[in-house]
Amino acid sequence: MIELGNYNTLKILRSTSVGLFLGDDEGTEVLLPNKYVPHDFQIDADLEVFCYLDNNERPIATTLKPFVIRNHFAFLKVVEVGAFGAFVDWGLEKHLLVPFREQTKRMEEGKKYVVHCYLDEESFRLTGSNRIDRFLSNTNGDLDYKLNDKVDILVSRRTPLGWEVIINNKHKGLVFESDVFKPISVGTRLVGYIKSVRHDNKIDVSLQPIGAKMLEPTAQLILDELHKNDGFLPLHDKSSPEEIKSALHLSKKSFKKAIGTLYKDRKVLITSDGIRLVR
């Protein structure tokens, strides 16, 4: 079955004047227009393509890589506002429509928004939505995360407590402001680590591994910075948290633990004016 809004691996059936016709195991065919046909194609070979509806609402295949696929989220730019909603650039020739009913507030041309791509079951069209909460579910049976599990996150909103994030395109989480030690903004994609799943199913996420696992990448970060700065950083135990955060995007606690580890491993010297790399 050919799935609209997703990648499909299809067999090349025949070549025509308008392009290649591709098919699945059920006998369904779709056209790959000439402009997307690879130079070295072979009949009966498999080809991975993205399938969607063209401007005439016909299924079409492309070798272009969209910025978002079906049932996923992305940070997309509005290129036009029309009579039915906003059109966002998702990397394909035909823009993705976000109807007015799917906007939390009226979208503006030139601005970027977090958008979910889904298949509208009534119109059978791929549609965008900025009402992202209705596509996220933190239910008991679905939250099998453990401490320090690595997850993909997309920053979706700033809150008084920190940053709301979308976890693995399925769940809502929160990165507390106190856990942010590098610049982030809405639309930023990051690797996160599960900090806790609370009794009310709210998920706390860290941008760094928790506990003992945190020391290794933090120590490596400091070593990398030392190499970039001729083996010296003007940071030490007396440096303010603000200085450390500005220079390394780390908390002072994480910094002190990391340089302690590096000192024990005889990789750095700690002096009154900073830390020096042991050559």
Give descriptors for this structure.
mainly beta, OB fold (Dihydrolipoamide Acetyltransferase, E2P), 279 residues, 5-stranded antiparallel beta sheet
Task: Provide structural commentary.
This protein has helices at residues 215-228, 241-248, 252-264; strands spanning 6-15, 19-23, 29-33, 46-53, 59-62, 73-81, 85-89, 96-99, 112-120, 125-129, 150-158, 162-167, 171-176, 189-197, 203-206, 232-233, 268-271, 274-277. With 279 residues, the chain is mainly beta. Strands 3-2-1-4-5 form a 5-stranded antiparallel β-sheet, with no helix packed on it. Strands 8-7-6-9-10 form a 5-stranded antiparallel β-sheet, with no helix packed on it. Helix 1 packs across helix 3.
